[in-house]
Amino acid sequence: MALNFFDQFMSPTYLGIPLITIALTSPWILYPSPPNRWLNNRLITLQSWFINRFTKQLLLPLNPEGHKWALMLTSLMVFLLSINLLGLLPYTFTPTTQLSLNMGLAVPFWLATVIIGMRNQPTASLGHLLPEGTPVPLIPVLIIIETISLFIRPLALGVRLTANLTAGHLLIQLIATAAFVLLPLMTTVAILTATILFLLTLLEIAVAMIQAYVFVLLLSLYLQENV
């Protein structure tokens, strides 16, 4: 029984073709493209308003040099948000529950921020490894600690996103299974469990949105340190 709970996190295949590729490309199909008319419909207007508001909020703490990343970070946010929300639908697969995918997103972006910092301002970037005013005996220890914390950043990004989504999906499946089993035995308890399941689903929708935002926000903070 315990193995069945984790089957939902296995990457499905059909005729030897991994369906994760379809799950990764399908969100982009759902977004409408702006028409050539002067006036857009309500859906495109709402989509443009959301993207503009998020981009302004994201670029608020960044220097003008970091505004070049606006398109990339906004696209990543929309991509993660779409995948997380679509994964809450029944009979769907959530690619962001795979640590390999999240690390594949976190490591290149983190590495790009580090390379930009080393290329543009190497002294300031290396200065983050040693706080000002550090006593001489503690210098080697602090350099080692700060270096380890620097390399842990992409791991924390990937594990945070994976753990939050995996825990939410497991909890939803456990409560849904309990409600289904209790329905013929104790109807009142089953209805109460179904109510909890509904509230938990609303919470998971919020978690899916927040985790996508936190992932991109932390990347923007890493970028701010290096531009």
From TrEMBL:
Pfam families for the chain: ATP-synt_A
Cell compartments where the protein resides: Mitochondrion inner membrane
Gene3D superfamilies the UniProt entry points to: ATP synthase, F0 complex, subunit A
One Gene Ontology term, aspect cellular component: mitochondrial inner membrane
SUPFAM superfamilies: F1F0 ATP synthase subunit A
Top-level taxon in the UniProt lineage: Eukaryota
InterPro entries the UniProt entry points to: ATP_synth_F0_asu, ATP_synth_F0_asu_AS, ATP_synth_F0_asu_bact/mt, F0_ATP_A_sf
Membrane topology: Multi-pass membrane protein
Recorded GO MF terms: proton-transporting ATP synthase activity, rotational mechanism
Membrane-spanning intervals of the chain: 12-31, 69-89, 101-118, 138-159, 171-199, 205-223
Presence of keyword Metal-binding: no
Keyword list, A-Z: ATP synthesis, CF(0), Hydrogen ion transport, Ion transport, Membrane, Mitochondrion, Mitochondrion inner membrane, Transmembrane, Transmembrane helix, Transport
Quaternary state and interactors: Component of the ATP synthase complex composed at least of ATP5F1A/subunit alpha, ATP5F1B/subunit beta, ATP5MC1/subunit c (homooctomer), MT-ATP6/subunit a, MT-ATP8/subunit 8, ATP5ME/subunit e, ATP5MF/subunit f, ATP5MG/subunit g, ATP5MK/subunit k, ATP5MJ/subunit j, ATP5F1C/subunit gamma, ATP5F1D/subunit delta, ATP5F1E/subunit epsilon, ATP5PF/subunit F6, ATP5PB/subunit b, ATP5PD/subunit d, ATP5PO/subunit OSCP.
Record-stated family: Belongs to the ATPase A chain family.
The name this protein goes by in its record: ATP synthase subunit a
Organism: Sternopygus dariensis
Gene: ATP6
